[in-house]
Amino acid sequence: MKTTLTGPEWAVMSALWGKEPQTLSEVIRSMGDSVKWSYTTYATYLSKLVKKGFVGFDLKGRDKFYYPLREQEACIREESRSLLDKMDDAAAKQLLVCMIQQSKLTKQDQKELKALIDELSEGSE
User: Among the four 45, 66, 97, 123, which has the fewest Cβ within 10 Å?
Assistant: First the structure.
C-alpha cells in the first residue's frame, strides 16, 4: 500500500521540490510565512518524511541536506488514486467537477484540460 502525505507534510515537500538539497534552516526559509511552527516541529516533519521514504538526506559535516525521494507528480498521482479509490464513478465525477470549479485555472490550464478531455473522448469512440 502506498503512503500518502498529510497536509503539513505536503507543505514541507512543496518547499523541497525543485529547490533541493536544503538544510533544515533553508527549508524553514523556503516555507516562509505559510506556517508558524517551532524549529522542532519542522525537524519532526522532516524526520517523519525521511521515515516514510519521501525525503532523503546527505550528511555533510554536522549539517543534513534534505532532498525529495519522490517526484511531485508521483505524489499527486498517489494522492488522487487514494481519493478516487474511496468513491464510486458518480462521486468521482462530482469530485472532479467540484475541483475544477473551485480551482483558479488559468486560460492556458483550461485549454490543456479541454485538450485532454477531447483526447480522451476520441479514444473512447
Answer: 123
